[in-house]
Amino acid sequence: MQSIYAMHQNDSDNMEKEEKFLFHSIENIRDLYLIMISALVEIRVSEEDYIEKSSKKHLATSEERNPNKKFINNEVLQLLEENNSLSVAMAERKINNWKQNDDYILVLLEAIKQSEVYNDYIKDSESSFEKDRDFIALLFTEVIAPNEKLYEYLEDYKLTWVDDIPLVNTMIAKQLKQIKPDGNSFFVPRLYKDADDKDFVKSLFRKTVLNDRELAKEFIDKTPNWDTERIAEVDAIILKMAICEFLKFPSIPVKVTINEYLEIAKEYSTPKSSIFINGILDNLIKDYQTNNKLIKTGRGLM
Question: What is d(CA 198, CA 4) in angstroms, rounded to the nearest whole number?
Fold first, then answer.
């Protein structure tokens, strides 16, 4: 939707260029994921380094000579640091953001130490993998992910990440809650489920762009009180994409299409857009069914 919107805004007909940027943006989601998950590793490394240096000070305090190492010994943090899937992905994508911007790691570490989540964990004399896992999952969702300085850094680093941050943070939070002691349960997720998944991105983009006028006619005729100028551009694009799925993607259930685009409308368009779009799509479905224009294959696709 954003790529098609960009083409409209730039009055561009260079579909290949926009398609290339679309896939580049999707690839960058993996980099965002790696940066976020690696922050946990770097935070542990930073704290370990601090503890070691403090203990060697000439006038080290008793607390500095005998520090509480529960945080740096956290089993989940150690597991992430040793995880092969993560190490390989980091090397392949050349992710070294925190080595170059360690001041942000120090900011996060300070926020962690001031948090109730951290202090409750440190004070707990009992240790187990489950407690370590619950702590890290809670720490990520309540302290790290919402950190404003981190968000500002990510936004400045790559503007397209603004919309991807919630998706990536949700994925990481889910993974952390499910991680197991053997480490085999943690892996860097694939961007696409399979080749068909990636092909769908290209196909939906191309079919919507190439059939722009044809798709517009489908709903303009159904909205006699609205001319093209009066329909918000984002709404028009959402309608075109939804209609494209109705007519040119027989394997996608109608309800899935409607639900997905209503969510997009709520996120990116005007407050009343989802109601407007839902009404048009509902009328179109009835019309397509009456005229046998809607062909869906498989069970439960209506």
Answer: 17
Residue 13 CB neighbour total at 10 angstroms: 9
Q: Above 50 in pLDDT, residue 120?
A: yes
Domains, the chain: 20-178 (no CATH), 195-290 (1.10.940.10)
Rounded CA-CA distance 288/301 in Å is 14
Q: Which of 250, 248, 241 is nearest to 208 (CA)?
A: 241
Q: Which positions ≥6 away from 60 have C-beta within 8 Å?
A: 54
- Is residue 231 predicted with pLDDT exceeding 90? no
Q: How far is the CA of 143 from the CAs of 3, 112, 285, in angstroms? A: 33, 6, 45
CA distance 45 to 51: 10
Tell me phi and psi for residue 53, to 5 degrees.
Answer: -65, -40
79-96 as b/e: b if 16+ CB within 10 A: bbbebeebeebbeebebe
102: closest CA among 42, 147, 49, 176? 42
Tokens of 295: 């062909």
Give 48: exposed, middle or buried? Use CB within 10 Å, 0-12, 13-18, 19+.
middle
The residue with tokens 């925190």 is 98
CB 86 within 8 A of CB 37: yes
- Cβ proximity of 74 and 140 under 8 Å: no
Contact 118, 110 (CB under 8 A): no
| Per-residue model confidence as pLDDT tens digits over 28-39 | 999 999 999 999
Tell me how far apart the alpha carbons of residues 258 and 262 are, in angstroms, rounded to a whole number: 6
pLDDT bin (cut points 50, 70, 90) of residue 229 is low
